[in-house]
What we know:
The chain is mainly α. It is built from three helices and no strands.
Amino acid sequence: DMFWTEILTALALVLVLEGMLPFISPARYRRMVAEITRLGDNQIRNIGLVVMIAGLLLLFVVRG
């Protein structure tokens, strides 16, 4: 029960954070998405890996 509460809380926070940029600056968001489409698969994969590692490190610091 507590596990699902934590997971859903984390998901809710991700959705709030992901929605902030398009809400605050739709034009900038559109340009950013256009730039991302120009990147290769390996570049996008590497960015995703770096973001995941940063998230894990932050999680360990906050929960540690």
